[in-house]
Amino acid sequence: xxxxxxxxxxxxxxxxxxxxxxxxxxxxxxxxxxxxxxxxxxxxxxxxxxxxxxxxxxxxxxxxxxxxxxxxxxxxxxxxxxxxxxxxxxxxxxxxxxxxxxxxxxxxxxxxxxxxxxxxxxxxxxxxxxxxxxxxxxxxxxxxxxxxxxxxxxxxxxxxxxxxxxxxxxxxxxxxxxxxxxxxxxxxxxxxxxxxxxxxxxxxxxxxxxxxxxxxxxxxxxxxxxxxxxxxxxxxxxxxxxxxxxxxxxxxxxxxxxxxxxxxxxxxxxxxxxxxxxxxxxxxxxxxxxxxxxxxxxxxxxxxxxxxxxxxxxxxxxxxxxxxxxxxxxxxxxxxxxxxxxxxxxxxxxxxxxxxxxxxxxxxx
Length: 365
What we know:
- It contains ten helices and seven strands.
- By secondary structure, it is of the alpha+beta class.
- The protein has two domains: 2-295, Beta Polymerase, domain 2, CATH 3.30.460.20; 300-362, Up-down Bundle (Methane Monooxygenase Hydroxylase, Chain G, domain 1).
- It has a seven-stranded mixed β-sheet with strand order 2-1-3-7-6-5-4, sandwiched between helices.
- Helix 7 (180-215) runs parallel beside helix 9 and helix 8 packs antiparallel against helix 9.
- The longest helix has 67 residues, at 259-325.
- The model is unreliable at 1-13 (pLDDT under 50).
């Protein structure tokens, strides 16, 4: 196992993970994507009012149909996406076929649509994988209707909505006191706030990489710079469009949104603008890190060239003296002298020493 751990470093190209590049840029809107359907789905239903709360879990999508027009606020959260179940619930709640198509799609750009009688938004929840250092995405669709919210998630094992579930159990919480539009706001706010946790992890990686590059720059450092830049591309592609999505809720004149809820969406808008600015700052930092890496590499090369130049200069006198006394002439000065060798060797030693003092005095090294 230990050998396999370091085996990949023998191949320099493997450090740059070109497969990750293909995954990031594989989106082609002209090709109909094929979604792998979930093995099973889990339907969590929360029915509530200021004085009432109930939570139920189903395996059959038809069990939540009774939530329509039940005089309560209903949150239907579906973990796992399958075509038949998505179509059935959309037909039952009168949701347009275009929204159904978007729910079933993959690798969509975050967006918000207003198609009567519902408001629809699609965006990605982000997670940071500590083992691989990759930013992972999970597409989530949120449908806001009259007195109901329907959300579709791809992964049943993780999400960021647990704090919302806990607040719904509290009778005097704002979620219980407000309508479905406030629940929609709370879900978007929770997703955006989680972006900051992912960005903090990336920021820590950038700081560690900066210290590593300052200490020593090598091919591994360049590979880490390249890997982080790819993850920043994923982050930027998912964070930036959410600004337009939230702006759509603020500008909307739908009857599903109360005036008092607009100020909450403005707060989310401020958060996503700040997140977008932070992502831009991280991208600038990565460009600076790449420049720092190149500067360190050039500096090391200059140091090597300086040492080689000094050694060459110090050996030049010995080379000249040895060349002179090695010429094939019958008569050369001191060639037959009793101390000729010692004189030549002394010159070969004394001249480089004098050159060292001259170089030091001039500040060349």
